[in-house]
Amino acid sequence: MIECTNCETAQFLQITKSRVFFEGGDLIHELSERYECTLCGGTGSYTYREADDRASLSGEVEMTEERPRFA
């Protein structure tokens, strides 16, 4: 789960920009999202690249292994 590092919750995060890049028209090559916390105004971005097979985060967001308590 992606959370705001200032508020320590994902509850107020909104995706403000999302882009998906396809390679050869079939497979997702890269996925990038920009987040903004509506509570504190913090911002950050998440990027996943298939070539690296890993995600990277920057700004005031972090990824946790935690799952939401309420869906």
- What is the β-strand count? 6
Ranges with pLDDT <50 over ≥5 residues?
none
Give the structural class: mainly beta
Strand residues, percent = over 45%
Q: Radius of gyration in whole Å, from Cα?
A: 13 Å
| Cross-sheet strand order for the largest sheet | 2-3-4-5
Largest sheet: 4 strands, antiparallel
Report the end-to-end length measured between terminal Cα atoms.
12 Å
Described by the principal axes of the CA atoms, the overall outline is: elongated
What descriptive keywords fit this protein?
single chain, 71 residues, mainly beta, four-stranded antiparallel β-sheet, two-stranded antiparallel ribbon, elongated
Give the helix/strand layout:
Elements lengths: L1 E3 L8 E11 L3 E11 L5 E7 L4 E6 L1 E3 L8
Antiparallel strand pairs: 1-6, 2-3, 3-4, 4-5
In short:
The protein contains no helices and 6 strands.
Describe the fold and architecture.
The chain has one domain (about 1-65). Helix content is about 0%, strand content about 60%. It has strands spanning about 1-5, 15-25, 25-35, 45-50, 55-60, 60-65. The strands form two sheets. A four-stranded antiparallel sheet has the order 2-3-4-5, with no helix packed on it. A two-stranded antiparallel sheet has the order 1-6. A hairpin with a 5-residue loop joins strand 3 (about 25-35) and strand 4. The radius of gyration is 13 Å and the shape is elongated. It starts with a strand and ends in an 8-residue tail after the last strand. About 15% of the residues are buried.
